Amino acid sequence: LEDHHADASYLLVFGGLKKDDTWLYSLASGTWSEVAASHNPGVRHGAVAVAVGPYCFVYGGGTVAPVRLYDDVWRFDVRTRQWTVVPAAGAGAGHTPAGRHYHGGALVHAPAPAGAPRPLAPDSLDRAHLVIFGGANCTGRCLCKNDVWALDLQQQVWREVVASPALSTRYHQTLVPLHGELLTFGGESYAPVYMYHNSVARLHVQGLSTPSSVWWQGPAIFFVVTVLAVGLVYCFALVLRVLSGTVQAKRLKAV
User: Fold this and answer.
1) Bridge partner residues of 49 (DSSP)
2) pTM, whole model, 2 decimals?
3) Contact at 8 Å (CB) between 167 and 66?
4) What are the pLDDT digits (tens) for 202-248?
5) Cβ 181 vs Cβ 159: under 8 Å
6) CB 57 within 8 A of CB 77
7) Predicted pLDDT of residue 91
8) 226 and 237 in contact (C-beta within 8 Å)?
9) 70 has pLDDT over 90
10) 104, 122, 168, 220: which sits with the fewest CB atoms below 10 Å from its CB?
11) Distances in Å between the alpha carbon of 83 and those of 27, 86, 98, 101, 130?
12) Strands 82-86 and 73-77
């Protein structure tokens, strides 16, 4: 998260299994501070989060006692240290994604129209979309999903989008943006057969992805992973480089 007025950058950690606390890690000082916010998304795990300037948007997740899934959207503003509910609506007849957890989520900016300013202001939500893929309903036996939805963060409207190629149902996968498209890796499926996915797929999202003549496949040269899972929900970024088969990662030291 970026607070441009204070010239400060933060890592946000929220929730996790049976938790609803909010923490900020200052990249400048290397220290943690807990945010005293009584009004927050509540106890949940398996949600996704994306950061846009000073904002962090959180969607979905669930609880284990009682078992419950969420389909709401929350926004955290690092400048005010406050959580607010985003009253997201559906593009048609209240059409919104069903509650889920362990889905993939990524921030995607729609292509800029002719004459649009470049670059955008640091806190602008113009053309910014939260895209989710798959996930599961594990309130009973886990039922995995393969639908793709996009939330226009400025207009606060959901719409189901067409992504190609169509992928099998899965959850626990990663989803990251790359050159206007999306890469997904890993995950777990129950149908048509039980399996773990070890392949990388490239998704073109209708209305959001820009045409590209580059077909990406093979070892990851640049990879950013967002992980929000059972246990503690971690919102952190790793930059991985594959050099002669050796993976190098830059890690932050917390105080």
Assistant:
1) 58
2) 0.79
3) no
4) 999 888 875 442 333 333 332 323 333 323 233 333 222 323 333 34
5) no
6) no
7) 65
8) yes
9) yes
10) 122
11) 21, 10, 22, 20, 17
12) antiparallel
Quick one: tokens of 23?
């923490």
Q: Give the contacts of 80 (CB within 8 A, at least 6 positions apart).
A: none
Of residues 104 and 239, the one with the higher pLDDT is 104
Distance, CA of 2 to chain centre: 17
- What's 254's DSSP letter? P
Which amino acid is it at 125?
A: L
Whether the bond between 165 and the residue before it is cis, its omega within 30 degrees of 0, is yes
User: At which residue do the structure tokens 């005293």 appear?
Assistant: 36
Contact yes or no for 199/185 (Cβ under 8 A): yes
Pairwise CA distance, residues 234 & 228, whole Å: 5
Tell me what pLDDT residue 93 has: 56
23, containing H or E segment: strand 19-26
Using a 10 angstrom Cβ sphere, with 0-12 exposed, 13-18 middle and 19 or more buried, the burial of residue 55 is buried
Which residues on adjacent β-strands are paired with residue 133?
104, 148
List CB contacts of 13: < 8 A, sequence separation 6 or more.
22, 23, 24, 25, 232, 233, 234, 235
Per the structure block, which two tokens stand in for 105?
A: 């989520």
Closest CA to 172 of 227, 219, 108: 227
- Alpha carbon distance 108, 203 (integer Å): 12
Residue 15 exposed, middle or buried by CB count within 10 Å (0-12, 13-18, 19+): buried
Please give the Cα distance from 213 to 35 (Å, whole number).
45
Which pLDDT score, from 0 to 100, does residue 118 have? Answer: 67
